[in-house]
Amino acid sequence: MAHIDLPEGLPGIVGPMTRYPDTEKPLNELAQVLLRGNQSTLSTGERELIATYVSAQNDCIFCQSAHGATAAHLLEGSYTTVEAVKKDFQSAPISDKLKALLVIAGKVQKGGRNVTEEDVAKAREHGATDRDIHDTVLISAAFCMFNRYVDGLATWTPEDPAIYDQIGGMLATVGYLDSIQRDQPEETTVG
Fold first, then answer.
1. What mean pLDDT do residues 8-34 have?
2. Residue 14's closest CA among 162, 150, 120?
3. Integer Cα distance of 125 and 108 in angstroms
4. What pLDDT score was predicted for residue 180?
5. For position 78, what pLDDT does the model report?
6. I need a surface site. Which of 58, 141, 165, 188 has the fewest CB within 10 A?
7. How far is Cα 190 from Cα 184, in angstroms, rounded to an integer?
8. Which residue, 157, 134, 135, 133, is CA-closest to 59?
9. Given this model, what pLDDT does residue 182 score?
10. Among 185, 160, 187, which residue's Cα sits nearest to residue 61?
11. Calpha distance 115→94 (Å, rounded)
């Protein structure tokens, strides 16, 4: 049960965003820019993997599941890659550049000052640009906030993987603007 009064049957961040639309809009706009914005040199799948990895490090089940499903949809259904990144990204089938960026993301997750010049140099050695490094740091920082928002309110975390697959498919297709559905499909409602 959530710590505050939230609409029943709306999973994770959807409940508080629906209840508090004044914060929904800027939070969704931030997610859209970070994860779908055209200015990033990282693919949408790579950005979703960063969000998934940080959420897994924060043990936020809802966010790692929803963004993992989104990444899988963007990576042509590759849940295997998503799970490998969560388990041990250094041995996952991803680029060396993304591995170096995930090192930075993991350090930001623990505290921004943990990122070293050596971490940045290693990322650059593998082709990371200033924009890649900027976006990685900001995605990691933002997802620490999103994860704490979801878990700090004790929002509903579904157990059915099909719900996350449905959320991931929607987010991969329409993004974050106007993605909160007031009338959720039956599969995502309780009762």
1. 96
2. 150
3. 20
4. 56
5. 87
6. 141
7. 10
8. 157
9. 43
10. 160
11. 21
What rounded mean pLDDT belongs to the chain? 93
Q: Find out whether 69 and 49 touch, Cβ atoms under 8 Å.
A: no
Tokens of 52: 């998934």
Mean pLDDT of 160-181: 89
The gap from C-alpha 147 to its chain's centroid, in whole angstroms, comes to 9
CA 161 centroid distance within chain:
16
Distance CA 21, CA 6 (A): 12
Domains detected in the chain = 14-179 (1.20.1290.10)
CB 46 within 8 A of CB 72: no
**Are 18 and 166 spatial neighbours (Cβ–Cβ below 8 Å)?**
no
pLDDT for 179 equals: 59
Q: Is pLDDT of 9 > 50? A: yes
Contacts of 133 (CB under 8 A, 6+ apart): 101, 104, 120, 123, 124
Would you say 6 and 15 are in contact if contact means Cβ atoms under 8 Å apart?
A: yes
Length of the chain: 191
> Tokens 């997610």 sit at which residue?
31
